[in-house]
Design a protein that fits this description.
This protein has twelve helices and no strands. It has helices at 7-38, 44-66, 78-100, 103-110, 113-125, 131-148, 153-157, 163-185, 191-214, 224-251, 264-274, 285-300. Helix 2 (44-66) crosses helix 10, helix 3 crosses helix 9 (191-214) and helix 9 (191-214) packs antiparallel against helix 10 (224-251). It is globular. The relative contact order is 0.21.
């Protein structure tokens, strides 16, 4: 009989972690379509404060039920402020960058995130990224860039690094640092509990930027479609996606976490087509296939 902690169990856990990141990419992709509904009516800091605050209350309530109504304050709460602030910085700088530059440029900068994650994973956790893993990262990045630049080589060649791109690069570095640091700072808490307190830390951070903006909003004038969009952002692209990211970060090397984000542009294309916004140029989908191929290589790449 195979032991619960044997090789079969470990393989299943890794496969589940990879599936978690695939689902994570799909949920985050959905946030682009739903976020575009709320963005014209609420400022980015307010949207993020609402989504993280509501997600914290939702997941915190579920945690209380699981613990029989007995709240337990975590040990060393500074850990969750550090992790929450890293994610908060990422989201705030992302929206600031989008006001200065365009989504194509930010998407191009984002392709550096998995590479930075691999570097941080080495220095923080001693995780070494082997040749096959580097090959998968490069293949996936090329495919993602093909999709981001709409298969237009001239758009790629005309790309310039400006203030917005540099700000977003700092945000991406914070997100890249998040995965290995999460694994380092976990002190035996369950994935669910760790998610709740990390969300709480992020809520505290982003709310500090949202308070001045919130006072200017006509809350009574916000319609049902906007609240439904915020509900998606809260439940799926915040609470559930954070839970998936926490789980995968505890069971996969840092370098294997964020390459799944390369699939986000592809999932955005699929979602936009599904809601009636039309299908993109089929040539662009070649990049999606290249990215998928890179992720297949990554799945089978050795982890040590």
């Amino acid at each position: 009989m195979t032991r619960p902690d044997g090789p079969v169990h470990a393989a299943r856990t890794r496969a589940t972690a990879h599936l978690a990141m695939l689902t994570y990419a799909m949920l985050i992709a959905g946030s682009f379509s739903f976020g575009s509904i709320a963005a014209p009516h609420l400022s980015p800091p307010v949207i993020n404060a609402i989504r993280f605050g509501a997600a914290t209350l939702l997941m915190g309530g579920m945690l209380l039920v699981r613990k029989g109504g007995r709240p337990a304050f975590p040990r060393a709460p500074w850990r969750f402020m550090v992790l929450g602030s890293l994610m908060g910085i990422y989201f705030i700088l992302m929206f600031i960058a989008l006001r200065i530059t365009d989504p194509v440029s930010t998407g191009a900068v984002f392709t550096l995130t998995p590479l930075m994650t691999a570097v941080f994973g080495f220095f923080i956790l001693g995780q070494r990224t082997r040749g096959l893993m580097w090959a998968s990262l490069i293949i996936s990045a090329v495919g993602a860039l093909w999709v981001i630049f709409r298969a237009d080589i001239w758009r790629l060649l005309s790309f310039r690094v400006g203030r917005g791109e540099m700000l977003f690069l700092i945000g991406c570095a914070c997100q890249a640092l998040y995965a290995p640091l999460l694994r380092l700072l976990n002190r035996g808490e369950s994935v669910f509990e760790f998610t709740v307190w990390t969300l709480a830390g992020c809520t505290v951070f982003v709310t500090a930027f949202a308070v001045p903006e919130a006072a200017k909003i006509d809350w009574a004038g916000i319609g049902l479609p906007i609240w439904l969009a915020i509900a998606y952002l809260t439940i799926f692209s915040t609470a559930i996606s954070f839970l998936l990211l926490q789980y995968a970060s505890l069971h996969l090397p840092a370098a294997k976490i964020f390459p799944y984000a390369y699939l986000i542009p592809t999932f955005v294309i699929v979602i936009e087509a599904a809601i009636g916004h039309g299908l993109t140029n089929p040539v662009i989908l070649i990049g999606s296939l290249v990215t998928a191929g890179g992720l297949v290589v990554m799945y089978f790449a050795p982890e040590k």
